[in-house]
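ok so heres the complex, two chains, lmk if somethin looks off
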Amino acid sequence: MHDICKEADAINEQLARYGVKFGIYKNGEFREQLFPFDAIPRIIDAEEFEYLEKGLKQRVTALNCFLQDIYTDKKIVKDGVIPPEFVYASSGYLPQCEGVRAPKGVASHISGIDLVQAKDGTWYILEDNLRVPSGASYPLIARGLCRRASPETFRERKIVDNRDYAQLLRRTMDHVNAGGDNVILTPGRYNAAFFEHSYLAELTGSVLVTGSDLFVEDDILYYNGMGGEKRRVGAVYRRISDEYLDPMNFLPESVIGVPHIFDVFKKGNVAIINAPGNGVADDKGIYYFVPKMVQYYLGEECITHNAPTYLPYYPEDMKYVLDKFDEIVIKDVAEAGGYGVVFGNKLTKAEKENLIALIKAEPRRFIAQDVIDFIDIDIMENGERVPRKADLRAFVLTGEDVTVWKSGLTRFSRNPDSFIVNSSQGGGFKDTWVLSR
Amino acid sequence: MSELAFEYRMHSDFERPIYNHAFRLMLLPPDTGRQKVLSLEAEVAPKSWMSQGRDGFGNRYFYGTAVEGHSTFTARVRGRVQTGLEGPEDDAEPILYTIPTPTTAPGPCAISLYHSLDSSNGGGGLARAEYLMAALRQVLLYMPGVTDTTSSSEAALQQKCGVCQDFTQVLLTLCRMDGIPARYVAGMVIGEGTTHAWAEIWSDGTWHGLDPTWGRRVNGDYIELCHGRDCRDCLLNRGVYAGPAIENQMITVSVKNV
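and the predicted structre for the whole thing:
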């Protein structure tokens, strides 16, 4: 491991040359910055990973059941497990998807589940990302570079090879492919995760396209091949959010989408990965209900742990939130990427009063969680090991089987006082090693 | 019960030829508890291909693409519809229509209007909605051209004027503040002119149409084209094309008693 740390600068230079960057919008400005790699890995031993694997498979299976149910029969609502307003008020709920069944019952093909580990060793789920979770390419490329920089590190340890991600992804696409080529649909060069789009296209043998490369004719999706010939598309791994996917069915002002693509999907002539409408299941308010989903759809106890969460919507939870305001973290369910997260004890008196008034006025808009004191992971800073907060994004791929990728994206906060590790907030990343024994 | 014959015509002129013109027209009246479609025909020109679909609210539309360059585009839909029926309701998701949307969320103007009203007048349901309709008609003036298809009810209240879309969305905002399920309907009304919009209120297990622009209940003179949570769900006419052309569009609607 020591050897890898010595090579960290060289690896970062390589990452920069490959274009491993992250675009950040802040105060209305777009800035592209490198996604700093820290060479000290997060290490998860075999037994611990086995537990995570079991829990994550169960969780994603239940979430897929929920997505199928919520846009069709809505049994979980009719049976009183989830109040209907939580579904309908979620910004990720898309009425356009009502009545639509995703091919082969898979709506969330690629799920990015964010976890943290508390000081007592317990893993907690922070959030489920079922729309367009990004990040798998970073540990994937970093592993390759690390292996080259320090082969002996990997020779001496039993680390599960994580370079199978592209094959897993390819299988996931092929499973639902409706007949035709696989494509990866990117908003373009200026997207925050463009590196990932192009890298995964290369590794999975998919065609990298933008919206204007695709067109619909007689309810079939095509692109123009190299020789100008029309080629049919069977699966679209889209890296465009639902709202911008199709100006004929979603936001009419979108210029990065593909007109009629959603109609082609509804007619079963193309797979869209992940399916539109998934936002209803990874909503921060719906998160609270995931353990109930596991019980409801699978009849099993939920293996993964949610962080202790309170919904001010319920009077007893509102009371808890008001009583413990200084000890909890409050999240606006409409925000993502580390925005809209507020620690009760960091507010001034006036800010606190404003927020409480807002919570009372719109209780559905907020969730509150106990602050989890999660473990620090060491990073190298100016030649010294220093502890920082870190989380783990695990990738769960659902095709014929549900598979948890034996790695993951470990993100850390570079600011020693911050708990927020999102890359859009300027954090860095690490490789995640899963040991084979 | 009445029987109405309608004709919808759209004619667009483009300053210069446009290409890859994708269109979606939500102009096919559905069968509902209150109307039954007897006949229907739709034509579009030019087109390379055309298909039909149904959205998540059950609204029907036709869509397609005109690939080759063209500088005019026309659509014509004709049909006969039985209206003013009292049939069973198939859409039983009223809670969806109690949730504010970006164009119907109450802002300061809506909140101040709401608080200036008598909170007990009308009780609940339809009678209450009629009271709210009368109240908003005291505030809003009918004036074309001041709002567009992205305008919110709050914007209309701010400028105190608007068209049928704005009257309808303000009524939705007020009803939803009272927890009354209310939805947006786009359609046509007897006479010559253009398309129209009104609201439907869920009360006593069924939807009741209220037309806040005219301040009256909806009757057999109205044909529904589609419904949704707000005007954004009910865009009748969508199109995107390649080419820097200015579009000049004319829409005429005629609805007659048979």
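quick notes: The radius of gyration of chain B is 19 Å. thats all i got rn
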